[in-house]
Amino acid sequence: MLIRADTQIPFPSSLVYATYRDKLVELVPYMPNVRQITLLSSREADSNVYSVNEWHGGSEIPAAARVLLSENMLSWTEYNTWNQADLTVEWRIETHAFTEAVKCSGKNRFLQDGNSTVIESRGELVIDAKQIKGVPFFLTSTIANVVEDFLGKSIQPNLLAMSAGVRQYLEQNARD
């Protein structure tokens, strides 16, 4: 499943990029589907910043999926490589449930567009039913479909909500 989201924020790309990279924990109140973000590590090398964040989502698991999914599905670890030179971030998400079966990664570009920033988010979500452990074989494809449907319907709206949160944060906190 391909992930694609484009948003526009009416602030310069260097400020939007730095806000995403450096103010993530402060953005939680602006993101309705996120309960908590914890910065696990961050280090700088050359013009890159490498960060690891643990996310805890707040959206409800649909009733039909609740039998198969747990609250762990709403938590994930995100590995980021922020490249200051070209204002990009390459990301990889590791879910806390069905870790071996779920592969999700992508890249965001922060592009200057006049006085605004266009954020192009591109990624891919792959669910490998053969890697789902701890459930009977005949259920693995059903679980894979439920997981893909749930994550697929969550990722793009979450990317858009995060951009809306960054915009609100900057409107309230940006200093000229």
Low-confidence runs? none
Characterize the biggest β-sheet: 7 strands, antiparallel
**Total number of strands:** 7
Strand order of the largest sheet: 1-7-6-5-4-3-2
> What share of residues are in beta strands?
35-45%
Shape: elongated
Compressed to H and E, one letter per element, the order equals EHEEHEEEEH
The total of helices stands at: 3
Distance linking N and C termini: 41 Å
Radius of gyration equals 17 Å
Bin the helical content: 25-40%
Which structural class do the helices and strands define?
alpha+beta
Average pLDDT: 83
What features would you describe in this structure?
It is built from three helices and seven strands. With 176 residues, it is of the alpha+beta class. Strands 1-7-6-5-4-3-2 form a seven-stranded antiparallel β-sheet. The radius of gyration is 17 Å and the shape is elongated.
SSE arrangement:
Layout: E1 2-9, H1 13-22, E2 34-45, E3 48-57, H2 63-66, E4 75-83, E5 88-95, E6 102-113, E7 116-127, H3 137-173
Antiparallel strand pairs: 1-7, 2-3, 3-4, 4-5, 5-6, 6-7
Notable characteristics:
alpha+beta; single chain; 29% helix; 176 residues; 7-stranded antiparallel β-sheet
Structure described in brief:
The chain is 29% helix and 40% strand.
